[in-house]
Design brief:
InterPro entries: Epimerase_deHydtase (IPR001509), NAD(P)-bd_dom_sf (IPR036291). With 278 residues, this protein is an alpha/beta fold. 33% of the residues lie in helices and 14% in strands. Strand 5, helix 4 and strand 6 form a beta-alpha-beta unit. The chain is globular.
C-alpha cells in the first residue's frame, strides 16, 4: 500500500496506531488539529487538518489508498459541539474518500451507537441502533453514512464499535476492555482483509465477560488475544455493590447511558491518559 491516512493521530488511541500503521504502507500521513504530534516515525509525516473542512480532507486524502478515521470530539457534549468534528467531519471524510478514489474507510465507531441495550443482553453486529448520547448518535450517523456510500458508491468501510480501550479499573471494563495490542490487530485486519464491503465489528478483547458477539464479523480475521479476567480479583475487591436500577451499571454504554444529553460521560469514568510517547 502506498499511502495510508490516520485522522485523530494526536489522540490516545492514535498514539498506539501510528507506528504499526507505518509498517503497512510506504507513507503514513497522520493528521489532527494539533500543531504537531512529537517525533515522527520513519515513513510518517504530519499534516495539520480540520475534519470540519472538506477542503482539508480533500487535500490530505489525495493519493491515499485508505483512511483510518479516529478523529472526533471524544466525549458527550452539546450537539453543537459535536456537529463539526463528529457529524460534518464524518461526511467530509467519506466524501473526500469517494472523490479521491480511496478503496476503504476504517472508522472508530463505538459501543455508544447501541449503548442503551441492557448489558445482560448479548448483542451482535446486526442489532438496530440505540444511541445513548449525541456522541453515540454521531456514531450511528457515520455507520449509516458508510452503509449508504457502500450501496450507492462502492466505497468500502469497516466500523469498529470500540467498547472501552483503556486501563481496566472498573467492573464494566472486565467485559468491555480492548487492549492496545488487540486494537492494533483489529485495525490491521480491517485494513488487510481482502474484501470488507460495509462491515461492523465490536472492538473488544477476548474477555470471559464480553457482552457482545462478533461471530458475523469473523471473516475479517480479528482474533483478540488478551483477557480482562486477569484484573477481575482486584477490580471486584475494590468495587462496591452496583445499582441494578442505574443505566450506567445496567446498559452497554456505561456512564454514557446514565448522563443527561449534552453532559460529559467521561466525567464519570476514571480514564487514565497513558498515551504512547514519541
Amino acid at each position: 500500500m502506498k499511502k495510508l491516512v490516520l485522522t485523530g493521530a494526536a489522540g490516545r488511541l492514535g498514539s498506539y496506531l501510528r507506528e504499526p500503521l507505518t509498517q503497512m504502507c510506504e507513507e503514513l500521513v497522520s493528521t489532527d488539529i494539533a500543531e504537531d504530534i512529537g517525533t515522527l516515525y520513519p515513513g510518517e509525516r504530519y499534516e495539520k487538518g480540520d475534519l470540519a473542512s472538506l477542503d482539508d480532507m480533500m487535500r490530505i486524502l489525495e493519493g491515499a489508498d485508505m483512511v483510518v478515521h479516529f478523529g472526533a470530539f471524544v466525549d458527550e457534549g452539546p450537539f453543537e459541539q459535536l456537529l463539526g468534528p463528529n457529524f460534518i467531519g464524518a461526511y467530509n471524510v467519506w466524501e473526500a474518500a469517494h472523490q479521491r478514489g480511496l478503496r476503504r474507510v476504517v472508522y472508530a465507531s463505538s459501543i455508544h451507537a447501541v449503548g442503551m441495550y441492557p448489558k445482560n443482553e448479548c448483542i451482535d453486529t446486526e442489532v438496530r441502533h440505540r444511541p445513548d448520547t449525541f456522541y453515540g448518535l454521531a456514531k450511528c450517523f457515520a455507520e449509516d453514512l458508510g452503509s449508504m456510500y457502500w450501496d450507492k458508491r462502492g466505497l468500502e468501510s469497516v466500523h469498529l464499535r470500540i467498547l472501552s480501550c483503556a486501563q481496566v479499573n472498573n467492573a464494566r471494563a472486565l467485559g468491555s476492555w480492548l487492549s492496545y495490542d488487540d486494537l492494533i490487530q483489529l485495525v490491521q485486519r480491517s485494513i488487510d482483509t481482502p474484501v470488507s464491503g460495509f462491515s461492523i465489528v465490536y472492538g473488544v478483547s477476548n474477555n470471559d465477560r464480553a457482552p457482545v458477539d462478533n461471530a458475523k464479523a469473523s471473516f475479517l480475521g480479528y482474533r483478540p488475544k488478551d483477557n480482562a479476567e486477569q484484573f477481575a480479583e482486584q477490580v471486584l475487591a475494590e468495587t462496591g455493590p452496583l445499582d441494578n436500577q442505574d443505566p450506567g451499571h445496567m446498559c452497554h454504554g456505561g456512564p454514557f447511558a446514565s448522563v443527561d444529553l449534552g453532559q460529559s460521560g467521561l466525567a464519570g469514568m476514571n480514564v487514565i491518559d497513558d498515551a504512547k510517547k514519541t
